[in-house]
Amino acid sequence: MKLRTLARTSATALAAATIALAPVLALAPAAGAAPQVFPFGTTITSNASKNVVSITGVATGSDSDTGTPITQIALTYTAGDQAIEGWQLMWPTLTYGAAGTPAEHNYTYSSDLFSGVVAPHTTVTLKYAYDVTYTDLNPATLSAGIGFYEDYVWSGDLASRITPPPPAPKPFGGIFGS
């Protein structure tokens, strides 16, 4: 009788584990499927979904409160044949330097979380800011994602694509010699 109870308990536990892990197993990416990496400036189109992601702007400056250098990157997402839900737009990661140091996200100078829907064949542009000076962005890698399976990766010299900010204006007293 104890053997039958043990077997029944084991079978129930195995079935429960299979049901609990089924979504994880179904969503797991294919082994060894590395995303293709493109140079900065390339517009990337997914072959499967026809979604398009492009870097449409890069700006630099500094935090007005702390003086921390900031780099802001604008990404434009264009939905393919299917709509893109807001939750599917993953916050891009930016790494820089030979060691691949992760840049800290700066939420103050970024777009708010997108909670809408990008209808098929329409676009949305979101700005993402990072606490890193633009001169450190050679080399750099930017990885964006839509959902669990679509990765959009750019790598190379991002620093050369950024126009440096103008110098700070001189104080008014300097003009009149006071």
Automatic annotation (TrEMBL):
KW Signal (keyword) present: yes
Keyword Signal among record annotations: yes
Keywords for this protein: Plasmid, Signal
Source organism, top-level taxon: Bacteria
Signal peptide positions (record): 1-33
Full protein name: Uncharacterized protein
